[in-house]
């Protein structure tokens, strides 16, 4: 996720609903570039998006992320980064002037 692209999770399609669950399994580290956004489309809800990461997670400065992050090691949100979701790590979660909003249940 470091190539400057805006990432979209989209539930559009004939068999998709707003209650669909998305689970992304990442075998290494996850690094989101600064000022980049993860966007939910087609009715996808942050409460139904999960990012399972085997390594560490770094969310760049002023970036925005959606969903619950489950990290095997640590999660670091850099200055001004925001998330609509939850942050769960086995070692540490570090925040630097961030906004963390719990997804609507």
Description:
- The protein is 0% helix and 46% strand.
- 26% of the residues are buried.
- The chain contains no helices and 13 strands.
- The model has no long low-confidence stretch (mean pLDDT 90).
- It has strands spanning 7-10, 22-26, 30-32, 38-41, 49-53, 57-59, 64-66, 68-71, 74-77, 82-84, 87-89, 92-95, 99-101.
- It is globular, with a radius of gyration of 13 Å.
- With 105 residues, it is an all-beta fold.
- The chain has a four-stranded parallel beta sheet, with no helix packed on it.
Helix content: under 10%
**What string gives the helices and strands in order?**
EEEEEEEEEEEEE
* Mean residue pLDDT: 90
**Structural class category:** mainly beta
Q: Based on Cα principal axes, name the global outline.
A: globular
For the terminal residues, how far apart are their CA atoms? 27 Å
Number of helices: 0
Number of strands: 13
Biggest sheet overview: 4 strands, parallel
Q: Biggest sheet, strands in spatial order?
A: 2-5-8-11
SS strand fraction: over 45%
Q: How many whole angstroms does the radius of gyration measure?
A: 13 Å
Question: Which helices and strands appear, and what pairs or packs with what?
Answer:
Elements: E1 7-10, E2 22-26, E3 30-32, E4 38-41, E5 49-53, E6 57-59, E7 64-66, E8 68-71, E9 74-77, E10 82-84, E11 87-89, E12 92-95, E13 99-101
Parallel strand pairs: 1-4, 2-5, 3-6, 5-8, 6-9, 7-10, 8-11, 9-12, 10-13
Short description:
By secondary structure, this protein is mostly beta strands. The chain has strands spanning 7-10, 22-26, 30-32, 38-41, 49-53, 57-59, 64-66, 68-71, 74-77, 82-84, 87-89, 92-95, 99-101. It starts with 6 loop residues before the first strand and ends with a strand.
């Amino acid at each position: 996720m470091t190539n400057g692209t805006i990432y979209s999770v989209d539930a559009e399609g004939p068999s998709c609903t707003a209650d669909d669950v998305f689970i992304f399994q990442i075998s290494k580290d996850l690094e989101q570039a600064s000022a980049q956004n993860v966007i939910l489309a087609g009715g996808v809800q942050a409460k139904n998006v999960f990012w399972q990461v085997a390594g560490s997670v770094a969310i760049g400065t002023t970036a925005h992320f959606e969903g619950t992050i489950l990290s095997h090691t640590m999660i670091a949100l850099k200055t001004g980064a925001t998330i609509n979701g939850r942050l769960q790590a086995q070692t540490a979660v570090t925040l630097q002037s961030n906004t963390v909003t719990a997804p609507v249940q």
